[in-house]
Fold Transporter.
Amino acid sequence: MKRDNFGSKLGLLAAAAGSAIGLGNIWKFPYVVGENGGAAFILVYLLCIAVIGFPLMMTEFAIGRFGQANVVDSFKKIKPNTPWFVTGILSAFTPFMILSFYIMIAGWVFTYIGKYATGAISSVAPAELANYFTSTAGNATGAIIASLIVIVITAFIVIAGIKEGVEKYSKILMPLLLILLVVLMVRSLTLDGASAGVNFLFKPDFSKLTPDSFLEALGHAFYSLSLAMGIIITYGSYVKKDQDLASLSLQVTIADTLIALLAGLVIFPAVFAYGFQPDAGPSLIFITLPAVFESMPLGNFFGLLFFSLIGIAAITSTISLLEVVVSFVNERFNISRNIATFVSASIIFLLSIPSILSFSSLSEFKIFGMTFFDLFDFITAKITLPLTGLLICIFAGWVWGAKNVLKEVSGEKEISPFAYYSYSLIIKIIAPLSIIAIFLHSFNII
């Protein structure tokens, strides 16, 4: 079966950056920063990205390009007749599970786009916005329709293939996302009192850091860069041999981090300018920011722009998550891409329904004390993501070998002793120990 490839370096960068840039940057990053004190946390996060995130991204690109196959067969090609293909199975399972509730959250975003487009939300009093969001999430029919729209859009793009689907639409969506982000940032920074938000983002107060902050920063670095989700390995399998993987990884890492910081410059100056709290948590974009938009001139217009921005970011991520699953189904079961996409998207949509109903008719139904949504989130965030990341580090550092990884990264060019020893130390020791610390912390063991 002939495999597709990215047609241009720009398309590859747009798609890879799009996979990393999603709700994690524009929704989760700002509220995590807000909960952990601002600038000091950002410095720790940047350190985690540079020391661990960047080397791990290179590693995943190398595994994918060497394997030239889906996540399972890439591991089989590197180490045939060994159990390491199980790491690939985990890498396919994780995005499958994540997408089942991610399309629900993206569906909420699309619902809010509609509410801003019609002006429906502008009549809601700020004090009622929390109840408004609760009723939106609890409207099962509306949430199911919105999730269906998200998965249909995603499947439409993925079914077209890498060049004509993923690459083509990433080259459209990513510049549009950046334009919207800059427009909103300019508006936010020109509000009276915006400087307090800028200071919060860039003036460190190290007294606000806690041991939890370091682990939170490291965990978010994994989440933000789409590591251990099979995405980078899958995209790596479509990368031509003449591409510099170190340069590509650096560019994606910088783009991802820049977008997250720009999102902070959209959100926090506005939040501070209107006297809201920066540590609102996950409710920041669905409750706090709509209250901010209601307080500012042309707020409905800027609310529409903001949720359109988040909607684009969500779609660039759903594309990459679905591509991992489709690539696996397409190649492992030797069925056409069209059928693989239809089957995968259909099952994911059906699996999303229990998560959607967790906010309405199934809210009282618990498994191990968790709703379906909480359970799916727990399985991926607390178990499969750190476990997959740990296995990839062990595989790259101790099984395939750091020298072989770097040989694939550099395209057979000579590797300096400093690069080898630095990478080897990170992939063999620092990254695995860090992931173990995240895992233990998530279960309140440390």
Observations:
- The chain has a mean pLDDT of 90.
- The longest helix spans residues 372-410.
- DSSP finds 17 helices and no strands in the chain.
- The domain at 9-367 is CATH 1.10.4160.10 (Hydantoin permease).
